[in-house]
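README: folding subset

This subset contains proteins for which both the sequence and a predicted structure token string are available. Records are stored as plain text. Below is the entry for Aspartate aminotransferase family protein (438 residues), shown exactly as it appears on disk.
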Amino acid sequence: MTTTNDLVRQLDRQYVFHSWSQQGQLDPLVIAGAKGCRMWDYAGKEYLDFSSQLVNTNIGHQHPKVIAAIKEQAETLTTVAPAHANLARGEAAKRIVERAPQGFSKVFFTNAGADANENAIRMARSYTGRDKILSAYRSYHGNTGSAIVATGDPRRVPNEFARGHAHFFNPYLYRSDFWASDEQEECQRALQHLRRVIECEGPGAIAAILLEPIPGTAGVLMPPANYLKGVRALADEFGILLIFDEVMAGFGRTGRWFAFEHFDVTPDLIVFAKGVNSGYVPAGGVVVSDAISRHFDEHMFFGGLTYSGHPLAMASIVATLDAMRDEGVVENAARIGEGVLGQGLERLAREHAIVGETRGRGVFHALELVSDRESRTPLSASAMSEIKHALLAEGMLPFVAENRIHVVPPCIVSEAETQQGLAILDNVLGEMSAKHAA
Ligand code: PLP
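--- output ---
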């Protein structure tokens, strides 16, 4: 029997329980295969992947060197207990530490991003002897006990069962929670607000501030230039650890290995997943600073996972990071972001009335869509759904969140592919501006 889109969709709807969904309302897109920045279905319809799936395929789909490394590792050793020493795990950890700034020495591996945050939080609590974790309302940190409660977005609310979490407003000048009119004002007021939250929650009770340096799912929110430095200073003043969640922004997406490198600031723990191996095999982890590593030389770390440092994941990390270095993938993300993509999105923002703002760095951008530029009224959910379907019909797989299109192609995206993506966006935004702009 030949495989068809209908067959795969029917199998899915009958047996698969999906994430974050009302199961009865789903009509999933069928994907048969992929290569580089392109995916296709069983009818041969092709899509330019401007979502990188869930913003994870930084190296693109089906990179031959990564696939070869996974196959080779599968022939050698497919699984090993975390307590054993294993070559692939050591090589993967070494490469990650080499890409981190000075002052980081070890890597704890997890299965993905949420459990990486979970373990970073646990390390911070154990290291400081304090309980509370502060994180931003505009954030996403994952879907496990503490990670979902650290998350600020509304998916937190039905899942609030972990203890010791408090939230603060992070800067977002376009929709300022601080009535700020420029970036400097937004920065100062956001830092003053964070200081007040620390004072009110009790500095002596706070183990860590957990932050995405550039919040991703919340809208690719570029922080004001000195915000992260200000957060670092507050953390230092009160003896609080700083955890940067680089799960979405890390490993090349912003045109640097880590997003925080743009802001001249260093955290105490770095949480990663997604781009570290483009998700070819599930993996995540925590890069641990020298001081915290030394602490756990003398103290027990009460945490672990059966698949911590799984050989297939580790081999894929080694091959991914080597290929990214050899092929200049991070440099490509920076070049495309500053050039054709960044400039192209600026042009779309000028030309189309429903674009309220474009922002981002590297291949990590968002277009914020509004029905009225003056009032900044977010475009309605039904208009956004129409836009998503129009983009798909034109052959682009978009990442749509609330009233935004996140423009997040793989870091390997070529100039020609970027131009093609921009042309599709141009068409659809033109059509939709005529229909939906006030
Ligand atoms: N942290 C950030 C910043 C994320 O964007 C995500 C997922 O999108 C996570 C954590 C959770 O990662 P995972 O879904 O791999 O558990």
